[in-house]
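User: Some background: our group keeps a shared notebook of sequences we're curious about, and every so often someone picks one and asks for a predicted structure to add to the entry. Today it's my turn. The entry only has the sequence so far, pasted here. Could you supply the structure so I can complete it?
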Amino acid sequence: MTEVYEKHRRRAVAIARRILRDADEAEDVVQDVFARLLHAGVRFDGKAAYTTWLHRILINSSINSLRARKRRSRLESPLSACEDPEATAVEREQHALVLEGLTHLSEQHRTVVTLRDLRGYSYPEIARLLGLPEGTVKSALNRGRTRLLAHLAEAT
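Assistant: Of course. Here's the predicted structure to add to the notebook entry:
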């Protein structure tokens, strides 16, 4: 795998950098992709050229990273100083209801919902963090959201 990394690293970083427009994040994505290929047992299926297959994985991972960055920046952006106090109070109340509603979910559902909706992680990132298949993450997220919405409907 080391020779594959050495052979394709420069091109991989160039692809990721073009999408992400951030050299450090591009390096992180490339290292993550190669680590996943090595440790997760992802296998080349032979339907396309190896470089095409690898580049598609890099593009998808870079796009996922970009989406996660955008979600995190939305969550981390400071509140405007000129916001309506009533709107701020309503938002705080809704936020408190959501946090309280999370306590009624199972640990797995709460963790997946928190990582995806509050922290902005992608499905592959969550799957890797929790050691679960990506499909399990998606179904747990769907069930967690459904139960959270049901709880919020009861609370209001």
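Suggested note for the entry: DSSP finds seven helices and no strands in the chain. Residues 1-77 form a domain with the Rna Polymerase Sigma Factor; Chain: A fold (CATH 1.10.1740.10).
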